[in-house]
Specification:
By secondary structure, chain A is α/β, with parallel strands linked by helices. Chain A is 35% helix and 21% strand. The first copy, chain A, has helices at 23-32, 89-98, 118-134, 149-155, 175-188, 191-197, 223-231, 249-270; strands at residues 6-8, 14-15, 18-20, 40-44, 50-55, 61-68, 77-83, 103-108, 142-143, 147-148, 162-166, 210-215, 235-237.
Chain lengths: 271, 271
């Protein structure tokens, strides 16, 4: 186990080699964790940078000791577009964060009944932050404000990612089959890499690949919602022969995406 | 959506073409769902058999109209051996059932603190039954009484299944890589099929394959628990580069197992 507590800090909190701690962070480190001056913790900026920090005599500040190299992020950018279920989105946010999601876009679909308050979205963002710390991620996923489906398709489409939409009962190809094909195409030719690098900032030493995954509400997407997604380039996919709840489907889809591209990375390193 | 409510019935409730309903089932059908005589529902025996049933004038009985062919079960038998987490096993049972698990064995490991009452195990069995109905499964998974790890290894080992144990931080091969190898070996040669058919009743028209998946508690398996599992033939595997909670890891593992063997089935049917 990594022995150091992880805290997310805002850009404005970093000043040279000093970290200015918020009152809530001071309370947490000094009162809850009972850290003393000289004790160490990890500051994360939520965008891939970690620092090992020592608490100073002035408990309002930390002293940066060193930067930390970690590699717990997926080699691809994954966006989850989730038609909001009636309940259980807290758990989905927590577990999707553990599974490496980059961004979660709550969707108002025809069969969505939830209409979350701004406080609820703040709560989901806090859960994502906590889960990023627990799962030792370098990047905290962003939870956007909810969008209606047609508006979401203006942004998350095949211009910037490979797009899948999950729908039960329709005998679509399995998501795993589609992902294995995408992985093999990428290893073979890199057509997507070239296409995507035109619209995204490239990461060093890795081909770029972005995936958008859309999952439906209780009762599924309507036929017209599925049709507009297919028009926008989404591949309809199955997650298996059983009927998954709206809170389970995203976890299955994200498990497959993370695993297909991480297992590839692992094999590449071994081979 | 399948319009018929699904109910699990015990063998003793089936008498010829009659289903004898328990008082709780009568209450549920007549009072909660407000079914009238002649209305239909599905009776499942929890072992792969479904019947379409009409409620009779005597609300204590149903009349079997026909048997129903469904195929929502995995082509393999999957056992989850889960070192009991402090909280959250209710959700794991529900979601593991959605993912097609055949059997869940709660494990007392060195770092397990939960000591469930018999009532708790009954509750998990009820959750599995509800989830099997919701996800349209033919088989209700069995939740066994908790076992200590060394005792569980006497039963769930390589004599009857391919065995994987999940452990973070140790650079083991990814479970997906191992499953793809197992699938390819099975398609290529069938060595496991022959080996396994010696100890298991064969299913018609499918090669047999059984998988046991072990996931650890908060803090993971101890080194000695991992060592005895490896001695028993377990392959240690990774589920990716992030630290998953004890309640998330089983869902990722089961998602991969179900998908690898269902995507194979789907491809076979298409090809």
């Amino acid at each position: 186990m990594n022995p150091f507590q992880r805290l997310v800090v805002a850009p404005g909190q970093m000043a040279g080699n000093q970290v200015d701690l918020t009152p809530a962070q001071q309370h947490y480190l000094s009162r809850v964790l009972r850290l003393r001056p000289g004790d160490r913790f990890i500051a994360m900026d939520g965008h891939g940078q970690w620092w090992l920090v020592a608490l100073t005599e002035n408990a309002a500040q930390g002293q940066v000791l060193t930067t930390i190299a970690v590699a717990t992020e997926l080699p691809i950018t994954v966006t989850l577009l989730i038609a909001m279920p009636k309940t259980g989105l807290d758990d989905v946010v927590r577990q999707a964060t553990e599974l490496g999601v980059s961004q979660i876009v709550p969707i108002h679909s025809a069969r969505t009944v939830l209409n979350p308050s701004p406080q609820k979205i703040d709560r989901w963002q806090r859960i994502a932050q906590e889960a990023a710390e627990q799962s030792e991620r370098q990047v905290v996923p962003v939870i956007t404000a909810p969008l209606v489906w047609s508006d979401a398709l203006q942004t998350w489409n095949t211009r910037q990612s490979i797009c899948y939409i999950c729908q039960a009962r329709d005998h679509h190809p399995h998501l795993l089959t589609c992902l294995e094909e995408a992985r093999n195409q990428r290893l073979g030719g890199g057509g997507w890499k070239d296409e995507l690098s035109a619209t995204q900032a490239p990461q060093p030493s890795r081909p770029i690949l972005a995936i958008s995954l859309a999952t439906g509400p209780e009762g599924g997407w309507t036929e017209s919602e599925l049709a507009v997604a297919i028009d926008a380039g989404y591949q309809p996919v199955s997650l298996g022969d059983r009927i998954l709840r709206a809170v389970t489907a995203p976890l299955v889809g994200l498990s497959l995406i993370a695993s297909v591209f991480e297992a590839e990375r692992g094999n590449g390193e071994q081979g």
